[in-house]
Amino acid sequence: MSGTRRGGGLLVAGTTSDAGKSVVTAGICRWLARQGVKVAPFKAQNMSLNSFVTREGAEIGRAQAMQAQAARVEPTALMNPVLLKPGGDRSSQVVLLGKPVGEMSARGYHGGRQEQLLGIVTDCLEQLRGTYDAVICEGAGSPAEINLRRTDIVNMGIARAARFPVVVVGDIDRGGVFASFFGTTALLSPEDQSLIAGYLVNKFRGDVSLLEPGMEMLRSLTGRGTYGVLPFQHGLGIDEEDGLRVSLRGAVRESVVAPPVGQDVLRVAVCAVPLMSNFTDVDALAAEPGVIVRFVDRAEELADADLVVVPGTRGTVKALEWLRERGLAEALARRAAEGRPVLGICGGFQALGEHIEDEVESKAGSVAGLGLLPVRVRFAVEKTLARPVGTALGEEVAGYEIHHGVAEVLGGEPFLDGCRVGSVWGTHWHGSLESDGFRRAFLREVAAAAGRRFVPAPDTSFSALREEQLDLLGDLIEEHADTAALLRLIESGAPSGLPFLPPGAP
C-alpha cells in the first residue's frame, strides 16, 4: 500500500456490543502489517475496566494495546483518546488522553462536552493519519443507537468527521444477523448511510453456501455486499474489553495442553469481585499446560483451588463488602492460616491489607481490610500510572501500575512493590505473570505450598502465544474476507451512489 494516498482508513462498526469489532479490527491490523502497511488502530471512546499503561505513562484500553501489537506498533494515547472506567451503574471515571480528569454520570457526560471531545478525538485521528498509511477504527456498541447519535463521537460521528467508510460486523451465533444488518442501516440518516459500505458476518458455524441466499437478498435490499464470513474460532484468548460482562459460569479459561504424565493439574480460582478490572492478568496462568483458571463467586468454590487470586477492581471497598457478604473473606483467612496460596493484585492486594483510608474512590473513609498482609492503604487523588521493572523470586519482572491507592508496607518479605507473608502475596503490578521466568518460579512456589506434583513447562512463552493468537486473527481476515475489496475501501473510501433506506423499507 506504499505510495497510496495519505492516511486512508476504515471504521469497523457492529450490530451490537460483542459482535466482534475488536477481533476484526485486530485481524485487519495484523493482515495489513504482514503486507508491509504501516497501520495503527484507533478507538475514539472506549468503556472498559481493562486498561493498559503506555510507555509515556498514558492509560488506554487493553483492547487498543492488543490491536497495536497486532499492527506491530507501540501503543499510544492517540489510539484511545477517551476511556470511560465504570465505577457503578450511573458514573464513570473519564480518562482523557491517558490521564483521569474526573468522575461523571452518563447524563452529564452526554450532556455538554461532546463537541469539545469530538474535536479532541478528531485531532488524535488526524495525527495518526499523518504518521500511518492506514488507520483502522473500532466503533462502540452499535451505530444505530439513535438515542445517542447527537452526541456520538465513536461510531458515525467519527466516520463522518474523517469521511471513513464503515463495515458493519454481525455476530451470527446470536441469530438474526440479516435483520440486524438491515435494521442497523435503515435506522441511520442519509448522510450516515452513505458511509456504510457493507457487512461482515462473524462467528459462523457450518457451510457458508447456506448463507449465500441471505447475502444476495441483503444486497438486493440494501445495495450493499458482504465482505466476508468469518468462522467461529475457539480459543482466541484476546483481551476482553469489559470486565463487567464476565459470565461467572462461562468464564473458564483452560489450557488446551495437558500436563506431562505423572504431574498434577494446578487449579486457580479467581474471585469475581464487583467492578473487576484487568482480569486479563490471569491469562498467562491459563496459558501454562496443566493450569485451569476459573472465575468464582462462592466460598465453597475455593475449596479445591491450589491458588486463589483476588484481582484488580475499580471499587476496592465495594469488593471488600462483597467478599465479606459471600463468606469469601472467611475462606481466604482460613486459607492463609492453613498456608494455602493467595495472590492479591492491585485492588485485590489493597483488600488483603490491614486498613484502607479512602476519601477518593468510595469516599467511605476508614475501612478495615482483610488483615492478611501488613499493609495500610491511603487513596490519593492523583492516579499512579507506571511501567515498573524489577526482580522477584530470582527472576526479572515487568508490569504496569494503574491505581489511586498508595500502599504502606509495614512488614513481610518484599514482593515486587508489595509483600509476602507465608503463602499470601500482594502487589500492585498488573501483567507481572506475563514474564515467563517469574511466572514459572511463582507457580513452583504455589505447587510446593499446595502439595502438588506440578512443574511448569520450561518452554511456555506467553509473548509467543500472544503472537500466535494475533496471527490467527490475521489469518481469519486473509482467508475468509474479501481483502481486495477491504483494501479498496481503505484507500478510496465508501463507493459512491449507495442507496438510502428509509426506515421501514422496503
Short description:
The chain is α/β, with parallel strands linked by helices and 506 residues long. The chain contains 15 helices and 28 strands. The N terminus is likely disordered.
Strand order of the largest sheet: 13-16-14-17-19-28-27-26
Q: What is the CATH domain class of the largest domain?
A: Alpha Beta
**What fold name goes in the CATH topology slot of the largest domain?**
Rossmann fold
Q: What summary fits the major beta sheet?
A: 8 strands, mixed
- Number of strand segments: 28
Mean pLDDT over all positions: 91
Question: Rg, please?
Answer: 23 Å
CATH superfamily of the largest domain: P-loop containing nucleotide triphosphate hydrolases
- Uncertain spans, ≥5 residues at pLDDT below 50? 1-5, 243-256
End-to-end separation in angstroms reads 39 Å
Give the helix tally. Answer: 15
From the helix content, strand content and strand pairing, which structural class follows?
alpha/beta
The global form is: globular
Protein name: Cobyric acid synthase
GO molecular function, one term: ABC-type vitamin B12 transporter activity
Domain CobQ/CobB/MinD/ParA nucleotide binding: 11-241
Active site: 346 (nucleophile), 430
What this model shows, in words?
With about 500 residues, this protein is an alpha/beta fold. It has two domains: about 10-235 and about 465-490, P-loop containing nucleotide triphosphate hydrolases (Rossmann fold, 3-Layer(aba) Sandwich); about 260-455, Class I glutamine amidotransferase (GATase) domain (Rossmann fold, 3-Layer(aba) Sandwich), CATH 3.40.50. Helix content is about 30%, strand content about 30%. It is built from 15 helices and 28 strands. The strands form seven sheets. It has an eight-stranded mixed sheet with strand order 13-16-14-17-19-28-27-26. It has a six-stranded parallel sheet with strand order 2-9-1-10-11-12, with helices on both faces. Helix 1 (about 20-35) runs parallel beside helix 2 (about 60-70), helix 4 packs across helix 5 (about 155-160) and helix 6 (about 175-185) runs parallel beside helix 8 (about 210-220). It is globular and about 70 Å long. The chain starts with 7 loop residues before the first strand and ends in a 14-residue tail after the last helix. Residues about 1-5 and about 245-255 have low confidence and may be disordered.
